[in-house]
Amino acid sequence: MATTQPAHPVEPALPGGLPAQPGPVGTIRYWAAAKAGAGTPEEPYAAGTLAEALDAARRRHAERPEFARVLLRCSFLVDGAPVGTRDHSTVQLAEGGTVEVLPPFAGG
Asked: Domains of the chain (ranges plus CATH)?
């Protein structure tokens, strides 16, 4: 018995209906102004690098221009390790990993 394939294959999706992208799946956690800018405390990523994850987040929140501005001032931790001044395209993400998005905090 022959089966038929849909004319347009269904793209796998992440929780929240986000289309899956190549790369590991993990969680981005937003703090303070980043959380306010994103309108959510956390969301999934599906990306191989920090740059890819942040680009996808910017696209998801394109209707919130403050979010992109806040990201420019943030520091990042990937699985607990500070990213510092490393190029975000060189920071590899892991399956089940966590990216912490930390805006500057008053007093420190």
From this structure: 25-102 (3.10.20.30)
